[in-house]
Design a protein that fits this description.
The chain has about 475 residues and is α/β, with parallel strands linked by helices. It has one domain: Alpha-Beta Complex (Amidase signature (AS) enzymes), CATH 3.90.1300.10. Strands 1-3-2-4-6-5-10-11-9-7-8 form an eleven-stranded mixed sheet, with helices on both faces. Strand 7, helix 8 and strand 8 form a beta-alpha-beta unit. Helix 7 packs antiparallel against helix 15, helix 9 crosses helix 11 and helix 9 crosses helix 12. The longest helix is centred in the last third of the chain and has 24 residues. The chain binds glutamine (GLN). The site of glutamine (GLN) has 13 residues, from loops.
Length: about 475
């Protein structure tokens, strides 16, 4: 049996019936990483020794008959912007290349309590800025389906690791699509929860009012299991919300009776690759055929999403990144105080990060604040209202994840505007703070995966799981 190819729920069963051990699973994943990493480069840091040690502990507990959480003994990869105590956390940047956090992020604490095995930290665009994982100080990750192509970004390392069986499950973060777009490009499941569902404590900030931690998995069932473990209120994150976390797994088999789905016409307009369009519309036809009502719906403010997103995100980022000055964290250059500030930031940050700091500082500056930042905040409210209106009539929306399948490494890296346009169907979701999932739908004629996005009301992740599970079944039949 190739253990690294299994899902979390399959492994859990085999562990419980003593047919396999966590040590065997962990060793299988490590061998796989050793075999494919020279090509894929999904990881920045691996933690094999600690992982093997942890696996032995879980096996002992299993031997004593201890009841285990579904994640116990399961290897998991963590995007390198989540703080892991004693394990280097670089955020894909030179400025944090040697940063070893003295504490664990909330989600890491939860994973450890559940007995999950951290196998390594995955590659990402520097400070989670980008759409291709080409902006990493540590070099690009490659798409396991075709090594000439990008895995998507910014959680490209996590998506590639799951897709190439270099881990069983992974965590990513999503500010404007960074879980869903790489999930779509790599043919895996990726879920961005409602803003406030998962604590951001210990997640290195990109844009605080957008960032959410979420999951990348091989199937919808695993996503439900992992989301249950990482969700919930945390006193240390004032934006986390005190709402019960349902047992998502219980909703998977509920079926689609009485569900109404909206299909926003603006998400199929000019610029979309015809193959992506037909793939998603065919999937909509398939669910209509089984009796689910699917209607066209209009979300008129969609066209303002990209400019609105990039004004707000760069503004928040320019403020969040002010803390990297050579004094407290990571890289330090220069001699005198002013020289240190200048040189540390000049040498420590890459091109895209500097571009965003400049854009954001400009949008926030006294003379331009009203014209850009304030205006964008108002547009954000209108975009949110588009969703509120749609959810008055529909339980969920179905859209593409990205206007095109994965593109070639190098194809867009020198054209930031083209790169920003890759996010057109994902940033709206973060602007509105609603949850969304990307599930694999079909392959393009070039053999690259195409994902489908399902969007639901805030804190209605149950509905996402219900629809995603049913659709996963239909699409794989
Ligand atoms: N591509 C988007 C950006 O560059 C999204 C990033 C993200 O979700 N972290 O901002």
């Amino acid at each position: 049996m190739e253990l690294e190819k299994l899902t979390c729920h399959e492994i859990h069963k085999l562990l419980r019936s003593n047919e396999i051990t966590s040590l065997e699973v962990t060793s299988a994943v490590i061998s796989r990483i050793e075999a494919v990493e020279p090509n894929v480069h999904a990881y920045i840091t691996t933690t094999f020794d600690e992982a093997l040690e942890q696996a032995t502990i879980v096996d002992k507990e299993l031997g004593c008959g201890k009841k285990l959480s579904p994640l116990a003994g399961i290897p998991i990869a963590i995007k390198d912007n989540m703080c892991t105590r004693g394990i280097k956390t670089t955020c894909g940047s030179k400025i944090l290349h040697n940063f070893i956090p003295p504490y664990d992020a909330f989600v890491i604490q939860r994973l450890k309590e559940a007995g999950a095995i951290i196998i390594g930290k995955t590659n990402m665009d520097e400070f989670a800025m980008g759409s291709s994982t080409e902006n990493s100080y540590f070099g690009p990750t490659r798409n396991p389906w075709n090594l000439d192509y990008v895995p998507g970004g910014t959680s490209g390392g996590s998506a590639a690791a799951v897709s190439a069986d270099e881990t069983i499950v992974a965590l990513g973060s999503d500010t404007g699509g960074s879980i869903r777009q790489p999930a779509s490009f790599c043919g895996v499941v990726g879920l961005k929860p409602t803003y406030g569902r998962v604590s951001r404590y210990g997640l290195i900030a990109h844009a605080s009012s957008f960032d959410q931690i979420g999951v990348l998995t091989k199937d919808v069932t695993d996503a439900a299991l992992l989301m249950k473990v990482i969700s919930g209120y945390d006193l240390a994150d004032s934006t986390s919300v005190k709402i019960d976390v349902p047992d998502y797994s219980n909703y998977l088999e509920e079926g689609l009776k009485d569900i109404k789905i909206g299909v926003p016409t603006e998400y199929f307009a000019e610029g979309i690759d015809p193959e992506v369009k037909s793939t998603i519309l065919q999937a909509v036809d398939l669910i209509s055929e089984i009796g689910v009502r699917c209607d066209d719906v209009s979300m008129p403010y969609t066209e303002y999403a990209i400019p609105c997103y990039y004004i707000l995100v760069t503004s928040e980022a320019s403020s969040n990144l002010a803390r990297y000055d050579g004094v407290q964290y990571g890289y330090r250059a220069g001699s005198s105080l002013l020289d240190m500030y200048k040189k540390t930031r000049e040498e420590g940050f890459g091109g895209e990060v500097k571009r965003r700091i400049m854009l954001g500082t400009y949008a926030l500056s006294a003379g331009y604040y009203d014209a850009y930042y304030l205006k964008a905040q108002k547009v954000r409210t209108l975009i949110k209202q588009d969703f509120d209106n749609a959810f008055e009539k529909y339980d969920a929306l179905i859209t593409p994840v990205s206007p095109f399948p994965a593109f070639k490494i190098g194809e867009k890296i020198n054209d930031p505007l083209q790169m920003y346009l890759a996010d057109i169907y994902t940033v709206t979701i973060n602007l509105a703070g609603v949850p969304a999932i990307s599930i694999p739908c079909r392959f393009s004629k070039d053999g690259l995966p195409i994902g489908l996005q399902i969007i639901c009301k805030p804190f209605d992740e149950q509905m996402l799981f219900k629809i995603a599970f049913a659709l996963e079944k239909i699409l794989t039949e």
